[in-house]
Amino acid sequence: MALRRRRVALAGHGAVGRALTILLGQTAAELADQRAWRST
Amino acid sequence: MTAVATRRAGLQVPGSTRIWPDLVSFLADPVAPYDVLVEVTTQSPRDGEPAATHIRAALGSGRDVVTANKGPIAWHESELRRIAAGSGARLRYEASLMDCLPAHPIRESIVPVGRILSFAGIVNATTNGILSAMAEGRSAAEALAEAQRSGQAEADPRNDTEGHDAALKATVLANLLLDPPELLTPASVDRRGLEAVPESWPAEAVGRGARVRLVVRGESTGEGAARGVRVRVGPEELPLDDSLAPVGATSMALRIESEYGGRLQLALLGAPVQSTAYAILMDLVALERTPRG
To answer: What ipTM does this complex have?
Structure first.
């Protein structure tokens, strides 16, 4: 996936915003792997 | 992340992330350093502001938007769709409905052909928790205090207990699933909340082998030029053989009846904040996988 190359603006940094920030960090590698797999 | 918009002072962010205090001008600026807006600010259920203003600014500048806020969608979907169509941007709002219980995929992949005739759901976990506690013999006041202590209910719980939150979700669901001739707003929802629940009703219902739930319902009515959509929210006593009755405490569920595929029910068992964040991620991935039209 190209998510790593998309620049995300986060409006609001309450509980959901914080959880999303953590989630994007946790899944970044997997999303990058998916992108590599899809491009082969 | 390249930018964070917040009024909170002293927020700790990674070194390369910029904190932007003037949010609307940033979002509307075509050269501001972002491609997609994730909108999760606190919003008013009465008009969806200020989230609606943020979404207008981003869509107007051609940026895709993912939001967890139901108010802007319920009150302004028609206008936001027009702005998005004009700039080529896309708007997704999975997290505004039932966290990561998927609603968009119902239309996109689960029921790709034929109409959805109706839906019924338990879409507000707070009131479901209160009603479940009342069914176990707690008073309404005790059940609400319990929900507030656990953080499930807000200090001002009326948005949930009066059915406003459920009405907003029912509006968005009806527009997404039932394809009404004209997009609905919450003003057209027949809404009743927990004020319509006598203190003893939930426990008495258990004695009858039933459960009281705050249920949202939407259905297509009429045909041709007379076609319409009716949406309502209110407490109902459901017999235990109703598939929504066992959906307890903090869970949510949505049942649909489709023209060709019959009845289908999806459930989210428990609703931690992570599931809201995951719904946002679902939308971000969906945007990546679907080229702009």
So the answer is: 0.84
